[in-house]
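sorry to bug you again but im stuck and you know this stuff better than me. what follows is a protein written twice so to speak, once as letters and once as structure tokens for the fold. id like you to explain what the token line says about the fold, in plain words if possible. anything you notice is useful, everything is just below.
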Amino acid sequence: MKHRSIVLSACAVASVLAAAALSTADAQTVVKVGVINTYSGPNVAQGDMMERGLQAYYQTHQKDLPPGVTIQLIRRDDTGAKPDVAKRLASELIVRDHVQLLIGTVWSPNAMAVAPVASQAKVPFVDTNAAAIPVTRHPYAIRTSFTLTQQAYPLAKWAAKHGYKTAYTAVSDYAPGQEGRDAFIKGFTEAGGKIVGQVTFPPPPNVADFAPFLLRIKDTHPDVVYTFVPAGPTATQLLKASADVGFPAAKIPFVSTEDLVPDEELVNMGDLALGLVTSGVYSSFSPRPANKAFVAAYQKIYTDGKRPDFETADAWDGMSAIFDLVKATKGRFTGEEGIAFLSKWQTADSPKGPVRIDPKTRQIVQNVYMRRVEKQGGQYVTVEFETIPMVDYLGNPTGQ
């Protein structure tokens, strides 16, 4: 009996220890997320806005994670449009840091370098800004941002419908610029418009002297100019250069995607931005309840007066998708399970309105808004005046 009692006591102790071990394991469920962003260099402004979106969601919603589960962000600086650096960082994060997910990047060349590395390692990659279509052709990549085609194609239809007969295109010469240009030309000519000329600016990280290009356009005097340059100070430089060469006096308007007038840059553009019509997926001035909640969460953390912009909202959505995955799995998932979940992710609570990932393409389907820059109460604001509901990555309304 004494021997049996000792055995039972030992079993009881073992059970307690096993339960404690399981409890400790649960308490130590850490999901590592590798962040590849632009934290330094001449194009840091866009990286800063994306980082703010990641951090705003992360800091606001940590409390929503399951008990004993945490998310660790491991941040790496690609220093700009440098695909070789981004590829190396992705490899290091996967092999050395053992991340289960990757998120980023500002630049399309970088995202196109990261996506195949992530797919080979079966680590899901959430693209929160880079707009080039080919990123999600790699099977472990999804997009929570947008494509330029998604915005430029309906913009072209709008321009032709509103009386513009001739157009000139002027874009930065890399994937998003090229894709947006081609989509605008397609939509504009389909609607009966005529393209009278094209120019390309040097791609980032090069800094363009816009004046010679703009003078060439001015001599042609098109009804409208479709343009794309990376958001941030470059967009302000383009508008200032157009004023210097006489675009306003010649009454040659720009139309563009949202990159031309990011909300945080409007204060630097001033009256140069007034009246500009752009297509986009987000305005921080939208009265949507989910957007008001997003802006309030952002401003609680960032008190420097800079408004969030589309890069911030896209990053917020990317982190929202990751948190939903972690909550659904209690932080325990394989790469295959992770991408299967993310490929079907959707929410009605995005600051941008309803969004969903198309599982066939892993591209985002979302509203595209026609917007106009106005001045209200002494403040420059981007006002959404028309909604094209649930547009796919090629710019076509899906109706769902």
